[in-house]
Amino acid sequence: MGGISAASVRGRLRHHVVMASHTSWRVGGPAQRLYRPADRDDLIAFLRFLPRDEPLLWLGLGSNLLVRDGGISGTVIAIAGVLNRIERRTDTTVWVEAGVPCAKLAKFCAREGLQGAEFLAGIPGTVGGALAMNAGAFGGTMWELVTAVEVVGIGGAHCRRLPQEYQVSYREVHGPEREWFLAAELRLTLGNSQVAQQQIRRLLRQRNGCQPTRQPCAGSVFRNPWNDKAGRLIEACGLKGASIGGARISERHANFIVNTGNASAADVEHLIQWVAETVARQAGVSLVPEVHMVGEPA
Predict the structure, then answer these.
(1) Which among 46, 6, 56 has a CA at the least distance from the CA of 178?
(2) Rounded-to-integer distance, Cα 290 and Cα 210, Å
(3) Would you list the DSSP string of 44-58?
(4) 8-state DSSP, 83
(5) CA 272, CA 288: separation in Å to the nearest integer?
(6) What φ, ψ does residue 252 adopt, rounded to 5°?
(7) What does the angle CA 181 – CA 184 – CA 187 come to, to the nearest 5 degrees?
(8) Helix %, strand %, coil % for the chain, to 5?
(9) pLDDT, tens only, 143-199
(10) CA 257 → CA 28, 69, 219, 271, distances in Å?
(11) What is the mean pLDDT of residues 272-276?
């Protein structure tokens, strides 16, 4: 791997790391390598050593991610808890690194008397993941806030890019290949701190009241089709509570699949496929997975 060894980096480089302990579904086979950088400079230095064709997976909190049982070739870069700085740059601008949990960002903005980021409290991932898929909740989406991003490429080269350099749509973001998000600059509106914090509490109560937040899951499994809800369609087809192996469609919200304790990644993937096939057959709607599936079958 281009001369990279545990002795040549300041972060922690491990081999054959089981991903089940690094994903919110608690499933997944081993990663060939998993690297947790010491800090941003160490990450950039690490990327300089990598072969340009090295397969990379950037890992935040492991939500919205299904790692297959056969594991992942290449290197997983874990940034949660490392790229974790948030700063208020101007009256209405916040700069945030990619490893910051979305909920933490929402609460920071609310405390600062800034409004517009409250919806992020309902997203169980990091800012980097939210940028990569234009994550959204409660009517808000990530890229509505973005004024600039900082990115890094496989050779360690990093730069600042503007939103117009990306094609952004519902749960999709397309930009330059082999670049990953380091940080984002967000524009919010001046508001009332108490009002913003109350809104976050209200949204979290709403989320906890209808989603299986205390069971291993990965967030919403399917994108909502135009002018409808994936959960409504799945429930209308009578699939709530259905299971394959240890994977089950949540009784609380049909667009969530939970690990009941002994699920494999194959159980989860087969259930996703079966749900999509059933909804297509019964409702005539093609559901598109929102979950990012990676790795090889066992």
Answers:
(1) 56
(2) 19
(3) HHHHHHS-TT--EEE
(4) S
(5) 10
(6) -85, -35
(7) 155
(8) 30, 30, 40
(9) 999 999 999 998 899 999 999 999 999 999 999 999 999 999 999 999 999 999 999
(10) 15, 17, 8, 8
(11) 98
CA dihedral sign, ordered 134, 135, 141, 143: negative
Q: Distance between CA 227 and CA 125 in Å, rounded?
A: 25
Active site residues: 171, 220, 290
8 Å CB contact between 120 and 129: no
**Cα–Cα distance between 165 and 202 in angstroms, integer?**
35
The length of the chain, given as a count of residues: 298
The string of pLDDT tens digits covering residues 49-83 is 888 899 999 999 999 999 999 999 999 999 999 99
Token pair listed for 241: 């509570």
Among 56-70, 197-211, 277-291, whose mean pLDDT is lowest?
A: 197-211
R_g of the chain, CA atoms, integer Å: 19
